[in-house]
Write a structure and sequence with these properties.
The protein has 304 residues and is an alpha/beta fold. It folds into 2 domains: 165 residues, 3-Layer(aba) Sandwich (D-Maltodextrin-Binding Protein, domain 2), CATH 3.40.190; 95 residues, Osmoprotection protein (prox), domain 2 (D-Maltodextrin-Binding Protein, domain 2). 45% of the residues lie in helices and 14% in strands. The protein is built from 13 helices and 10 strands. It has a 5-stranded mixed beta sheet with strand order 7-6-8-5-9. A 3-stranded antiparallel beta sheet has the order 3-10-4, with helices on both faces. Helix 2 links the parallel strand 1 and strand 2. The longest helix is centred in the first third of the chain and has 21 residues. It is globular, with a radius of gyration of 23 Å.
């Protein structure tokens, strides 16, 4: 009888442990993903480490998965649960022409769109940090051809070798915007990953004459590049916000989960984002190390 009771007690404990591990207070693994360039990967890592500090297990397989045409379907399908998004460009991806220079309007409209995607996706608070597409040239090119704004480029566009994003032809804030607003339809194009070091290096090395970079990219200041003013305001307000699948939020303490991510976003501003990018692309520091140091400096790795 004693042996039976021990077995029964053990079986009961196993059932109790199984119940605790599959529901109630358990925290599911969060599959974090991002676009492929360094800044998107940095923001994904920042959110990932903050979640880990909050007791979540994070699967990073999707970080750097590819451009928006890859990462957006990955989020909609559930391949990933969370990704940082540039809300103006994200809106343009789904509803070309609806993006604006107002981040609040972009976030609201993006939420309206994503509420019906993939079973529902939530746009959390956007950060003060914004990073917009920037078309830049070398200083001597700007001087020789009298280029200060994108409107100046049309008459000389065929004299220039262009480095544009690999998805530029299908991205409404790239090829379509350049053509419709400025009459720019360059023929000599080298497709490269935007907002990344190889694009900047190609410009510095004179392989290309115009490069599509990001406004926070430290290569601009380091190399003395000239940003051509977007005088027709084709580029949207691209503040950063985490996008999270609703089916994940249903499995967690939603308020606590969102608090972790929103606290991170609130602390990230444009100057900080630019500095962190410099640490990664110029100083060659590891993304995870840079993310951790910043989170620690802001007290964001504990207390949840």
């Amino acid at each position: 009888m004693r042996h039976y009771r021990v077995l029964a007690f053990g079986a009961s404990m196993l059932l109790l442990l199984a119940a605790c591990s599959t529901g109630g207070g358990s925290k599911p693994t969060v599959k974090v993903g991002s676009d492929g360039f360094y800044e998107a990967k940095l923001m994904a890592e920042v959110y990932a480490q903050a979640l880990e500090a909050g007791g979540y297990t994070v699967d990073r397989t999707g970080i750097g998965i590819g451009a928006r045409k890859v990462s957006a379907p990955a989020l909609e399908s559930g391949q990933i649960d969370l990704k940082p998004e540039y809300i103006g460009s994200g809106l343009a991806f789904y509803e070309a022409g609806e993006q604006t220079g107002d981040p609040a309007a972009n976030a609201k409209e993006l939420q309206a769109v994503l509420g019906g995607k993939g079973g529902g996706i939530t746009v959390l608070d956007y950060s003060p940090a914004a990073d917009q597409n920037a078309f830049v040239v070398r200083a001597e090119t700007a001087t020789q051809l009298h280029l200060a704004k994108l409107s100046d480029v049309a008459p000389v566009q065929d004299q220039l070798r262009w480095g544009l994003a690999t998805d530029c032809q299908t991205n409404p804030v790239c090829a379509e915007a350049l053509k419709d607003a400025y009459g720019l339809a360059p023929a000599n194009i080298t497709p490269l990953a935007p907002c990344d070091t190889p694009m900047a290096q190609a410009l510095a090395n004179r392989t290309i004459d115009v490069a599509e970079l990001c406004s926070t990219q430290p290569d601009i200041a380091v190399n003395g590049f000239v940003v051509l003013a977007d005088d027709k305001q084709t580029q949207p307000a691209d503040n950063i916000a985490p996008l999270v699948r609703d089916d994940l939020l249903a499995k967690v303490d939603k308020a606590a989960f969102e608090k972790i991510l929103n606290a991170v976003s609130a602390k990230m501003d444009t100057a900080t984002l630019t500095d962190l990018g410099k640490q990664i692309t110029v100083d060659k520091k590891d993304i995870a190390v840079v993310a951790k140091a910043w989170l620690q400096s802001k007290g964001l790795l504990g207390g949840y």
